[in-house]
Write a structure and sequence with these properties.
By secondary structure, the protein is of the alpha/beta class. The protein contains 11 helices and 14 strands.
């Protein structure tokens, strides 16, 4: 039986493939919505021998179905943010500790021990609601860092606290709040990584990431802006150290599909829909077809280039209606 420690210990492509196929065959039986989806596709789980052939569950089903494969009742249910016009996704997890281990392993792989940082969270739209996995993650990172904190709308206090802080700092903020901070105050930040996540949440107009990062660099006096890529339906995060190029931890993999044929995965460099294998989703579904557009690079890194137009009506929608 695969455990979260097994997943987080993956070090080779061969180990990833073995664990992915094992988890697929388990979840294709235990996760009821995924089982029905695989059955509607006419796929016999034991016939799949290649990671690229594993069917990806459309992410919309996290809004309407209990996407869960755990044996016991879930310990926590994280929910997605929305602007009030959409239904929130629900991610059921059997163990809060499994989630904690996962995000700490990913953060440490890219940024080292949280204790060496002061971590500041500027996440107003997340703090204003219940059930955010991002708030849970940042709260734990702040605790381990031993310095920093959450800030809602008090930008002046945030700036003052960061200026007085002598440790290296990470300011992790939702995109629109960072834009507001850079535009209204333009503080020149020292010994600080600014990491954006989460988009505009209906608070400001959507703009290209390159344009946003240029605004933030000018406002904060920085050369690069980091990014965190995650979502409520995932247990893991990918990180970008600049230029919008994301890298995943060893137990997470990105595939790119044709937007008109969700079962046709495209070669590296071609633009298409983002599919994610997150093996840390051991008690939900690890194989997810997202609504994001992007490209996969030769070294396994990837970039995000927007959302699929009309993304709530997507490939496989007829199968989704059958499931509902």
């Amino acid at each position: 039986m695969t455990t979260i420690n097994d997943i987080l210990s993956i070090t080779s492509p061969e180990d990833f493939t073995s664990r992915a196929l094992e988890l697929f065959r388990l979840q294709a039986v235990r996760c009821a919505p995924y089982r029905r989806y695989v059955e509607l596709l006419g796929i016999e789980p034991t016939s799949i021998t290649c990671v690229e052939d594993i069917p990806m569950l459309p992410i919309e089903l996290f809004k309407t179905e209990d996407v869960y494969s755990g044996k016991s009742e879930p310990e926590v249910v994280f929910t997605s943010s929305n602007t009030g016009s959409t239904v929130a996704s629900r991610h059921m997890m059997s163990s809060v500790e499994n989630y904690r281990k996962t995000f700490l392993a990913a953060f440490t792989a890219f940024y080292g021990d949280p204790a060496q940082w002061s971590i500041y969270g500027l996440l107003p739209s997340y703090l204003e609601r219940e059930g955010s996995s991002l708030v849970f993650m940042v709260d734990e990172l702040i605790r381990l860092a031993g310095s920093g904190g959450f800030y809602l709308n008090n930008y002046e206090r945030l700036i003052a606290d960061m200026e007085a802080d002598t440790k290296p700092k990470i300011l992790l903020g939702v995109s629109y709040a960072l834009w507001d901070l850079a535009e209204k105050y333009a503080p020149k930040l020292k010994d600080t990584i600014v990491m954006e996540t989460g988009g505009m949440k209906g608070r400001r107009k959507e703009i290209a990431k390159e344009e946003l990062h240029a605004i933030l660099c000018r406002g904060f006096g920085l050369k690069t802006i980091h990014s965190e890529y995650g979502m409520a339906e995932l247990s893991s995060q990918a990180y970008s150290a600049g230029e919008g190029i994301f890298r995943t931890p060893s137990w997470m993999r990105i595939l790119v599909r044709d937007i008109n044929d969700p079962f046709d995965h495209k070669p590296q460099g071609m633009r298409g829909g983002i599919d994610i294998i997150d093996l840390a989703n051991i008690d939900s579904c690890a194989f997810i077809q997202t609504q994001d557009l992007g490209r996969l690079h030769a070294d396994g890194s990837f970039c995000i280039e927007g959302r699929i137009a009309g993304s709530d009506i997507r490939g496989c929608n007829l199968l989704i209606h059958d499931l509902l």
